[in-house]
Write a structure and sequence with these properties.
The chain is built from five helices and six strands. It has 173 residues and is α+β, with helices and mostly antiparallel strands. Strand 4 and strand 5 form a beta hairpin. Helix 1 crosses helix 3 and helix 3 packs across helix 5. It is globular, with a radius of gyration of 18 Å. The relative contact order is 0.23.
């Protein structure tokens, strides 16, 4: 399951939308898109509201026919076998992307993406995720047109993400 602009836009809507309890901006302000990883505990889980398995890395989960549990254990056993065969991985970390405003109030980082990872991603995939988030912010009715532009992208020293940022920056110039 790959990250989509629609998923990110739904998160933007939830965190920056009219029901989020934020003050209406007097004028547009700049924002920071920050990306990093957090520890994930290395286990999968069950999401009862959606009847899905969770905690499988986003890069390889597409190799499963479905993550829906269904009425029996067939898909769970298939997922377990895929993990044993090293075709699908249990996430070790989560990639987190957040957006925060350059203001005096309500400046806290709001996470617009939380994606399980096995740390086998490429710089091209990193660049793609960044572009998806920027596109979602620019396209959302409660993103750029309502709150303002993303002025900067911040990250740690992750080499894969740095290469993705460099490639994206080269295309902008």
């Amino acid at each position: 399951m790959q990250v989509t602009a629609m998923d990110v836009m739904a998160n933007i809507s939830m965190l920056f939308g009219h029901g989020a309890g934020l003050e209406v901006p007097q004028s547009h302000v700049g924002h920071t898109l920050a990306l990093d990883e957090i520890a994930g505990g290395g286990r999968s889980c069950y999401l009862s509201k959606t009847d899905e398995m969770a905690g499988l890395c986003h890069k390889h989960v597409h190799k499963l026919s479905s993550i829906k549990m269904g009425l029996d254990l067939t898909l769970v056993l298939a997922a377990a076998q895929a993990v044993k065969d090293d075709k699908v991985h249990i996430r070790k970390e989560f990639t987190v992307a957040s957006i925060s405003a350059h203001v005096q109030k309500n400046y806290s980082a709001k996470p617009v993406l939380l994606s399980p990872t096995c740390k086998q991603g490429t710089w091209q995939e990193s660049e793609s995720v960044i572009k998806i988030i920027l596109t979602a912010w620019a396209s959302s009715p409660v993103g750029e047109c309502y709150w303002g532009l993303i002025w900067e992208i911040a990250s740690d020293g992750d080499a894969t993400r740095q290469a993705g940022l460099q490639a994206g920056n080269a295309q902008v110039q």
